[in-house]
């Protein structure tokens, strides 16, 4: 586990190990309670938020998704916003399958636009309607 100054946690790569979850969650709790370490430390992107850098995770799997879900839950319990940065395409796809794209700051895939029916839903046709 690596941590940088301020409110950024760095997930080790190429894939997080079994001990990383507990260590990163403990570090996140410490950041939530006490803020960034030491005077003059980088305060991070915004008060009350923590960035998780996953750029080193080049072989993501369910362990990476589990780690990020646990970190998100831990942050939410402490009133802190969690944002994942540096996610590659494979990790983004896994997070989308798990419904965790909000961690990336994006709209979840497959969401219907405002006033639009979801994909795969067909409108009914009234037999009295004239063709356009």
Q: How does this structure look, described?
A:
Helices cover 30% and strands 11% of the residues. By secondary structure, the protein is an alpha/beta fold. It has a four-stranded mixed β-sheet with strand order 1-2-3-4, covered by helices on one side. Helix 2 links the parallel strand 3 and strand 4. It is elongated and about 65 Å long. The N terminus is likely disordered.
Short structural summary:
The protein is an alpha/beta fold. The protein contains 3 helices and 4 strands, in the order E-E-H-E-H-E-H.
Computed over alpha carbons, the radius of gyration is: 20 Å
Strand content: 5-15%
As a percent range, the share of helical residues equals 25-40%
* DSSP summary: helix tally: 3
Regarding quaternary structure, what we see is: single chain
The helix/strand series, from N terminus to C terminus, equals EEHEHEH
User: Residue ranges: pLDDT <50 for 5 or more in a row?
Assistant: 1-5, 39-46
Q: Which descriptors apply to this entry?
A:
132 residues, alpha/beta, elongated, disordered N terminus
């Amino acid at each position: 586990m690596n941590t940088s100054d301020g409110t950024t946690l760095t997930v080790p790569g190429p894939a997080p190990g079994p001990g990383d979850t507990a260590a990163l969650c403990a570090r996140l709790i410490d950041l939530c309670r006490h803020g960034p370490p030491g005077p003059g430390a980088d305060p991070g992107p915004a008060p009350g938020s923590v960035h998780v850098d996953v750029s080193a995770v080049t072989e993501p799997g369910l362990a990476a998704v589990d780690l990020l879900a646990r970190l998100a839950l831990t942050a939410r319990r402490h009133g802190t916003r969690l944002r994942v940065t540096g996610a590659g395409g494979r990790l983004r796809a896994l997070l989308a399958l798990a419904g965790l794209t909000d961690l990336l700051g994006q709209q979840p895939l497959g969401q219907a636009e405002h006033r639009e029916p979801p994909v795969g839903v067909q409108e009914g046709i009234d037999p009295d309607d004239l063709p356009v």
